[in-house]
Fold:
Amino acid sequence: MARPSDLAGRTAPCVLLAGDIGPAGVDALDTGIVLAVATAAGAPLSHAAILARSIGLPLVTGLGAALLDVPPGALVLVDGDAGTVEVEPAAAAVNVAAARQETSRRRLEQARGAAMSPAVTLDGHTVTVLVNTASPEEAAAAVAQGADGVGMLRTEFAFLGRSEAPGEAEQYEAYRGVADAIGDRPLVIRTLDLGADIPAWGGGWEPNPALGNRGIRFTLANRPLLEVQLRAIARLAGERPLQVMFPMVTTVDEVRDARACLDAIDPAGRLEVGITVEVPAAAVCADALAPLVDFFAIGTNDLTQYTLAADRANSAVAALADGMHPAVLRLIRQVTAAGERHGRPVEVVGELGCDPLALPLLLGLGVSTLSVRPNAVAAVKQAVRLVRLGDARLLADAALDAESAAAVRRLCVAAAAAGPGAREAARGVL
Ligand code: PEP
Ligand code: MG
Structure:
């Protein structure tokens, strides 16, 4: 293992042990050298963890300060799926881990074999599976592995670690690069979601940044930044169908303001407009927001954080930040119900969409499209093929009535174990 200070000039592969790591820190790692990361602080829903998962880098967070006492050069076994780190593991443990790694590699290979076919449920409903991405290379790899398009281009990730915002031409080229990589497939560009654990240019210190000036709040308060980005996006919209999405919406006025800004730049209205629903107020008031948008994208990472008052980057409350909590599911249902009433499609763009256990639940709640991290596309498509939507709706009804995230998980596990049609059996375990 190595510490951050050992990385400069290092050529031998290692596991990095650190106090914490931000998204810029993950982005800067050479993954040919750093094979896995373990941190004392942090949590699985942080942007650093999301970025790590999207590039296939095992990252285990929230291990506590004792992690930093591990002596340099020690052998460590990192299980990114289980979220565990073992120091100086026995040979048997290493063999078990290697066997597990081989099994999941084979499963992934199997899923990838079918990944270019559409994801259709057992009762014939096609589910669109898009990819969350931040770069043309990643987008190209994802469509080669079956992604139906890009459901969320995280525009802020491409400019991590820079002291100034990129200009219109550079942004246009970046978006154009992704468009070229995916051909005529759908492309949704999310406007800058800076703030909280992704420091904003000129954002300044905030006492509680997760509840502060982030997402659409930040860009509306820094209009030139938003205008430059929308001009770059509108330029691409002159060349291909394109959707734009505003993050962290709380009020109808924010959407009206952002749309006014866009209308001035794109008077022909070539862009379809969506919002991420990740603030509980937006979910509860989805009926009021629906007439202002063409689609909803539910950001379950933030929706979970804000619903359960559990900072997504804080290891102390990581266990609370569970998107399976019935409170989060009820909000998701409010959004899909509003979407149905107003004819607006609803997709999920948060990490919950990558969880095969949660997938039947999301489809049962009325989600029609998923946008997931690149290396989850094939597995999610495969998981869709095992769902019967009729049963998934019954499972969702039961989950909405459950008392806790743990109870919802038990329902989902039972449903998965019993196969389609298992809702009654699932009820029995509560
Ligand atoms: C989310 O909040 O679920 C989301 C997709 O956006 P991000 O993780 O970038 O905040
Ligand atoms: Mg979010």
